[in-house]
Every structure is written in C-alpha cells, then in structure tokens.
Amino acid sequence: MKFIVTLLLLFTFTVTPASAATASLSLTKDRHYVYLNFGDLKNVSKVNYTLVYNSSSGQKGFEGGFKLNPKTSRSSRRQILGTCSSSRCVFHRNIRNVSLDATFTLRSGGSVNVTKSLP
C-alpha cells in the first residue's frame, strides 16, 4: 500500500498542465494591416512568430518576437502588409493565404507552437 501511495504522489508532482497560450490574427477590411493577438501568456517568457502571405508581387513575410514579464497576460501587434520609407507607405496588393506560426517559450523551459491561417 505504501508503494502505491508513493507512486501516486510521484505521478502527481511530475505532471504539469499544458500551457493555454493562444494566438490569433485578423486582417483589416482593406487588407493593409494584420493584427496579431497573443493571449494566456502568464506562463510564457518569450514569443517568437513568423507571418507569411502571398501578394500580387509574390510571397512576403516577416518575423518578430518579444520577451514578457510575469504579469503580462495578453499582447497585440499591428503590422503593415507593405513597406514604408520616408513617411510613405506602399501596401502589398491582393493579400491572401496568410499564415502565422508562433512559438511560445514557457517559463518552465518547454515550448508550445501554434499555427493560424486566413484565406
């Protein structure tokens, strides 16, 4: 009986709950910007992401990332789908097949990958 209790205690302390970190993306109606939303970040120390999309001039994309303090639970980013120089922006046209790949580095040392896409 003592062996079974010890085994149950060992199992209880070695199992950790999975992170509920989330990622979502949405496009503005004119498809000039994409909003990246990250949530449930209490157990996350760092977020890295890659966004790839097709435009009339070919495949485009960008990478980003940020570190978090333990009190942060949500974070959002607005990203232009185009290029800017000298206060002038040129938007990519015919945006489609938008794909976000986010990697959440957990405070416990593991990581969780989330992929989202839009047509």
Question: Could you explain how this protein is built, in words?
Answer:
The protein is mainly beta and 119 residues long. It contains one helix and nine strands. It has a four-stranded antiparallel beta sheet, with no helix packed on it. The protein has a three-stranded antiparallel beta sheet with strand order 1-2-5, with no helix packed on it. A hairpin with a 2-residue loop joins β6 (82-85) and β7 (88-91). The chain has one helix at 2-14, and strands at 22-27, 33-39, 44-55, 58-67, 74-80, 82-85, 88-91, 96-106, 111-118.
Structural class: mainly beta
Mean pLDDT: 87
Estimated share of beta-strand residues = over 45%
N→C terminal distance = 58 Å
Largest β sheet strand count, sense and barrel closure = 4 strands, antiparallel
The number of helices is: 1
Overall strand count: 9
- Radius of gyration (CA) equals 20 Å
Residues in helices, as a percent range:
10-25%
Report low-confidence residues grouped into runs of 5 or more.
Answer: 2-18
Strand order of the largest sheet: 4-3-8-9
Element string (H = helix, E = strand): HEEEEEEEEE
- The dominant shape is elongated
Summarize the structure.
This protein has 1 helix and 9 strands. The chain is mainly β and 119 residues long. A 4-stranded antiparallel sheet has the order 4-3-8-9, with no helix packed on it. A 3-stranded antiparallel sheet has the order 1-2-5, with no helix packed on it.
